[in-house]
Amino acid sequence: MAFLGELSVALLCLLIVYFLCVRDRKRLPPLATESMFTTIAALTTSDAPWFVLSLAQKYPGRVFRMRVPQWRPWVVIADGPTARAVLRARAADKPSLYSNFDGMTAGWASFFTSPDGPRWEHARKGVSHAFTSSLIRDKLDALQSCAALGLRLDVLSASGEEFDAAQLMIELMIDVLGETVLAGFDFGMLRGGGDSSGMGLRFLEAVEPALIEYALKRTNNPLRKLMAFAIPEARAAGRAAVELMRIANEVMEEFRSRREAAASASEREELDATIIGKLVSNPNYAHEQERAADVVTFLIAGHDTTGFTLAWTIYELAAHPEIADRLAADLRSNNEVTPEHSEYLAAVINESMRLWPVAAMGSLRVLAEDLALSDGAVIPAGAICSIPFLPVHRTAPVQDAGTFKPERWLKNVEPSLKENFMPFSTGRRNCVGQTLAMAELKRFLALIVTGYKLELVRPPKSDYFLTLKPADGRLRVSRRPPMSH
């Protein structure tokens, strides 16, 4: 009898524990029905953002789980307000998955891949002042790249030759990075390779194999690192990463030489105020190669993001000549309407970035504490949150969300439009270079639209690989006639 009594007590305790667990069990966001195989296969193709978009459109709350080879929940957040809550949360950090990207900098962590902490904080704060509006405006006013772009477009206009806008804008942005981020370094891509030992071409040749290996293949296959010595492409990517770091060190050496040769204290102060100047003078780096890793990061992050945004916008303007004509008239009609202050130009850029956010798959965060959702579901602590910007933008509850309509940004802007718009991310880990990027977009789009008419020969295809590229499109340009008075 005593035994039965003890057994009854034990069973009662188990029942109490069970019911407490059931009561406290968290209701997680819905799990997508697609198999793990289907999901992984889709995420490793150029259609990854569109696959996630198709899933997001199935769930009213736009928050759901995907089946991926992770022991903890993988939660996709396509709802803007929820995404903002995660990106701005102090209890959310970058997951260790980002360490795969360190392979691109020969194993050295950059401020992009580093979690919150001293390494990230000193690098971010160190360069922030160099991105102030006044410094950027002064630098853009002196850009030689504007003249070089005009010359290239004049040649294309005279010949009637078709061209790939994405390729041209990438060449432009590498030159602009040299002039802005690297304080006047001459890549000379628009002139065919530059004066610095073809460094721009060397960079482009090295960056693609490194990105494919470390940002794609090793992220999707954690075991690949163990077999890298036996895989020719992996070995080639390792050499490409070393080349990227070599380029960064050459750039820093050239900057230091120019600074030492500066003729005056004011010239040295001007150099020190640049982004490369802030990186080189920051005393908090533990090793010189950490600086080099951050130089590589700025080069990678700055050339294709802004370049492809320019290209997407140009293609949209070519597809909508009435919008291009209105924008040209707005910029040409009044000398007081500068690119920096044109509301319509800002609307065109916003609408292009809404439809075609180049960081289409956005950011990852890992939660340190539970996050309760408005529908009662909970994203548990430890979950990896994927915040893909293209689905966030395109599932926003706004009218004609898939249509290019700059006017939606001009008057009575819908709150849901702003809430679901984050091309530069948000929170403390947002894009440090967004002020420079917007200034560049405005400056170069104004130059192109006011000077040239765009003819769409072949619309581009969407091609995603870390950034959303307009691939295989073709344009023609012709000189825009002078304004009639």
In short:
By secondary structure, the chain is an alpha+beta fold.
Structure commentary:
The model is unreliable at 9-24 (pLDDT under 50). The relative contact order is 0.16. It is globular and about 70 Å long. With 485 residues, it is an alpha+beta fold. It has a single domain, classed as Cytochrome p450 (Orthogonal Bundle). It is 52% helix and 9% strand. Helix 13 (288-319) packs parallel to helix 18 (434-451). Strand 1 and strand 2 (74-77) form a beta hairpin. The chain has 18 helices and eleven strands.
**Into which percent range does the helicity of residues fall?**
40-55%
Count of distinct structural domains: 1
Biggest sheet, open or closed, and with what strands and sense?
5 strands, mixed
CATH homologous superfamily title: Cytochrome P450
Morphology: globular
Unreliable spans: 9-24
Provide the residue-averaged pLDDT: 90
Please state the CA-atom Rg, rounded to the nearest Å: 25 Å
Order of helices and strands: HHHEEHEHHHHHHHHHHHEEEEHHHEEEE
Number of helices: 18
**Major sheet: order of its strands?**
1-2-7-4-3
Strand elements, count = 11
Query: What would the CATH topology be?
Result: Cytochrome p450
Distance between the termini: 108 Å
Name of the CATH architecture? Orthogonal Bundle
GO molecular function: heme binding; iron ion binding; monooxygenase activity; oxidoreductase activity, acting on paired donors, with incorporation or reduction of molecular oxygen
Protein name: Cytochrome P450
InterPro entries: Cyt_P450 (IPR001128), Cyt_P450_CS (IPR017972), Cyt_P450_E_grp-I (IPR002401), Cyt_P450_sf (IPR036396), Cytochrome_P450_monoxygenase (IPR050121)
Binding site for heme: 431
